Amino acid sequence: MKNKLFSLVIVFIGILITFSSCEKTTTEPNSSIETNATEYVVSGNTVTVTDHGEGIGNKTFTADTVWLLNKMVFVNSGQTLKIEAGTVIKGKPGQGEQSSALIVARGAKIYAEGTANKPIIFTAEADDLNGSVARTDKGLWGGVIILGAAKINTIPNKMNIEGIPTTEKRGEYGGADDDDNSGIFTYVSIRHGGTNIGADNEINGLSLGAVGRGTTIDFIEVFANNDDGYEFFGGSVITKHLISAYCKDDAFDWDQGYRGQGQFWLAVQDPDGGDRMGELDGADDPEDGTPLGGGTVYNATWIGRGASAGKKVMTFRANGGGYFYNSIFVNQTKGVDIEMKENLTASSSYKRFKNGELKVENNMFYDVADGTQVGIFKVSAKDGVSDSDKSIAEADWAAYIATANNSVDINPGITYPTSTNFSFNPVPTGDVTTNLASYPTEFESVNYKGAFDPNATNWAQGWTLLFK
User: Fold this and answer.
1) How many alpha carbons lie under 13 Å from residue 206 in its C-beta half-sphere?
2) Is the confidence at residue 28, as pLDDT, over 50?
3) Which end of the chain has the smaller Cβ count within 10 Å, N or C?
């Protein structure tokens, strides 16, 4: 009996040692950490999370606790993070390697399933959710990064994600599985992020590196980020109901062979800041890498900065292609341009257009450029392109646009925010139900253009900061 009891004690001690190697909980902020265990420091209803290398393990962030990220916190490969509806996660301030962010590594899973009544909120430590942080304050913490094993078109086919030090192996993304599944991410609001990790290198609100189409991403808000709202680094993920609001750089950015699908995307650029609403690149290095990049988007509503800001609706460049249908683009100085390089046959977005891999059709443009097709749709010829080749390319593009069923002078009835008034209404009151492109089976078939049904309530009400 004594021998059995002794054996049980040894087994129990072994279990405790194994558990403590993955997680260390303490109420003493100055406790020293002698292992790579993730540290959880409890203070009232706040738990500060510090990742010392082993990731968070299999963990649930509960809604009765505020979870404070201290520097970069990883969900390592093989681990699963669950986040309850209504949970608030905050990030400490800091730059460089001190930046706070949540990174879901390749091979890990996240199940962050908020609801319209109980969204999951990521924000800065200083934000009490009741006005302690100005609505447009940016760069107060990092952001959220999800990494997968879908295809990218770089050489090599695995890269380290932007915003993470290149020495951090857990920041690697890319592979060969376009059906890769990183989990579920729904009804999530990401606020006031985008801290610097280096010169002109900020973290995006939501970075998606080689995320596969097995992942569910729906009803997401990125508000007041100091870089892009969303950036897709390759991958094939399907997204719906994305909001980018008041971000400093681009609202939506894709590159490295992104081939995913999007529907019901809303962009609202800060009248006092922000760049393009869409930066649509094909590749980094090599520029003709495969798979060729180009997402497909239906039912976007993009609201720009106004006539005097000098910014574009979107740019296709770096051999990027893509497809936009049944969308509304308003209130921007410049329209859509496609990049041309070297000559008529060189790899470029112009060549992708000629190959039928870049289309902008059945959309509405209003208060964009000078309100004409010639003024809205341009070819951007780079240095070295001859005048004759440029003229041919411009004629090709203009001839296509003339038959692409885009309206340029019909008011969709959308109001815009201003520098002094955040109030606006993206739900159209004009006619947005005619001249629609047909929907492929994988998209939701609706009878209107833009992200909002003119005969329904605003789906972004109630859970976003934008419409608080």
Assistant:
1) 25
2) no
3) N
The answer to whether residue 241 sits within a structural domain is yes
Question: CA–CA separation, 355 vs 349, rounded Å?
Answer: 10
Instruction: Specify burial of residue 141 (Cβ count, 10 A radius: 0-12, 13-18, 19+).
Output: buried
**Is the pLDDT assigned to residue 170 strictly greater than 80?**
yes
Q: Assess contact for 311 and 334: CB atoms under 8 A.
A: yes
Phi first, then psi: what are they for 396, rounded to 5°? -60, -50
Q: Is residue 445 part of a domain?
A: no
d(CA 67, CA 122): 9
Q: What is the sign of the dihedral through the CA atoms of 300, 305, 307 and 309? A: negative
pLDDT in tens, 271-283: 999 999 999 999 9
Question: What is the CB neighbour count within 10 angstroms for residue 330?
Answer: 22
CB–CB of 334/302 below 8 Å?
A: no
Mean pLDDT of the chain: 93
Amino acid at 333: T
What's the domain range around 227? 35-249
367, part of any domain = no
Inter-residue contact 195 to 103 (CB < 8 Å): no
Q: Which pLDDT tens digit goes with each residue over 279-328?
A: 999 998 899 999 999 999 999 999 999 999 999 999 999 999 999 999 99
Peptide bond preceding 286 in cis form (omega within 30 of 0)? yes
- Record the pTM: 0.93
Instruction: State the CB neighbour count (10 A cutoff) for residue 126.
Output: 14
In angstroms, rounded to a whole number, what is the distance separating the alpha carbons of residues 114 and 195?
A: 25
Surface-to-core class of residue 240, CB atoms within 10 Å of its CB (0-12 exposed, 13-18 middle, 19+ buried):
buried
Query: What's the Rg (C-alpha) of the chain?
Result: 24
Q: How many domains does the chain have?
A: 1
Does the pLDDT value for residue 17 go beyond 90? no
Within a domain: residue 96?
yes
Nearest to 231 by CA among 215, 212, 248, 255: 255
DSSP string, 334-397: EEEEEEE-SSTTSSSHHHHHHTT-EEEES-EEEEETTSSHHHHEEEEEPTT--HHHHHHHHHHH
Closest CA to 260 of 212, 224, 226, 321: 212
